[in-house]
Amino acid sequence: MKIIALLGVLLCLWSCDIIEPHDPLMGDWLWQESYSYGCFSNYKTVAKPGERIILHLKAPNQYTISKNDTLKEEGTFRLEGVEGQGTDKKELQLQLINAKQPTTPTNTVLWGQAIRELTNKRLYLANDYGTGGSGSYYVRAR
What we know:
Elements (H helix, E strand, L loop, with lengths): L1 H18 L7 E12 L4 E4 L6 E6 L3 E6 L2 E14 L6 E11 L13 E5 L3 E8 L2 E9 L2
């Protein structure tokens, strides 16, 4: 009888996920690397061993950035469709607004805002300019 009740609870929880899908953008993203290229600079910054910079996105449009469990920045964000660089297609951009920085900013997160890749495990944000661009890679934090 207990097994049947447990299966019923698990089935209910599983079906709730089907009815109410989770937004793949929301949650914790571990920063991996950022880069910049163009006529003024070409460089790549990667996470140092043991360094954990987390971009946390949650509803309703709130975000935080922490480094090794210390809050570095918090505020709100919005998603906006904008014209893509060199294309007729619209791109979805992640725009951080109303940022508050309680401590020194990380300066390594969110170099770029167009969402170029979004899966359950990976997030790639990038910006292209006329003379160069920048981007940041994240993986889903555990």
